[in-house]
Design brief:
Blueprint: H1 4-19, E1 34-36, E2 42-44, E3 52-58, H2 63-78, E4 86-92, H3 97-105, E5 113-116, H4 120-125, E6 133-137, E7 143-148, H5 154-164, H6 200-242
Parallel strand pairs: 3-4, 4-5
Antiparallel strand pairs: 1-2, 3-6, 6-7
Helix pairs in contact: 1-6
Length: about 240
């Protein structure tokens, strides 16, 4: 019992850290948010119930985002998705606000797109670890599809069209991003890092991981000290018993 209790406590301490930043699964409820947009209104999971909406997590310095978002903007219009029952929300992470706005405006965004210039908190809440990451949310507020990395925009617009009961429109060819970070292989996604204020998304991760490591170290030291004391006391009792 003395040995199993500390192990159980250690598991309880570290287990939540493994899932603190996990993306929601398809079919799950989209995590709550309620934030102001660059356009002057507010978007929230409550207000968006009954609509299909796409959350696009991106960064202005990300080469894949620079390729992906203009293509998605054009494909969105071509698929006739400028409708009242659908919305796309661009969640900018790890990006200075002025650069985020400038990048967004360069997309010639459709009329039913919205921009959240500083979405670091929401990205962490959704477990986003790389950009671009896109989630399609259905009319009931549940995750219908998750897409990571640079993909043909039709992969997004087709899902949206199907949820709306519309016929997916044929799209043109999509050119994959020319610049690919060496560590990402074929995924075409970029992990937010030290570029243009890129530490924002990782800071929360680092703090929580640091706290977790500190807890494990402190607990390990306490356990070692307690166990050593227990064994010393046990040896003394045995020694007295022999006498």
């Amino acid at each position: 019992m003395m040995r199993t209790l500390p192990i159980a406590l250690l598991i309880l301490l570290t287990f939540p850290l493994l899932f603190a930043f996990a993306l929601p699964q398809e079919g799950e409820e989209a995590p709550y948010f309620n934030v102001p947009t660059y356009e002057g209104d507010r978007v929230s999971t409550e207000k968006l119930k009954g609509k299909v909406y796409v959350l696009v997590f991106a960064a202005e310095w990300c080469p894949h985002c620079r390729e992906e978002l203009p293509a998605l903007s054009k494909a969105w219009k071509d698929a006739s998705l400028e409708r009242d029952d659908v919305m796309c929300i661009v969640m900018m992470v790890s990006s200075p606000q002025d650069k985020a706005i400038k990048f967004y405006e360069s997309l010639d965004p459709p009329s039913n797109w919205r921009l959240v210039p500083d979405a670091n908190y929401i990205a962490e809440k959704y477990g986003v670890r790389a950009v671009p990451t896109m989630l399609v949310i259905d009319q009931e507020g549940k995750v219908a599809s998750i897409v990571r990395g640079a993909v043909p925009p039709q992969q997004i617009t087709d899902v949206v069209s199907e949820l709306l009961g519309a016929t997916p429109q044929p799209q043109g060819n999509y050119t994959s991003p020319a610049t690919e970070p060496g560590s990402t292989g074929k995924t075409g996604s970029t992990t937010p890092s030290g570029e243009a204020g890129g530490s924002g998304l990782k800071l929360g991760h680092m703090i929580l991981i640091g706290l977790g490591v500190a807890l494990v170290v402190v607990f390990g030291a306490w356990y070692y000290k307690t166990l050593k004391k227990f064994e010393t006391t046990k040896k003394k009792k045995k020694s007295k018993g022999k006498k």
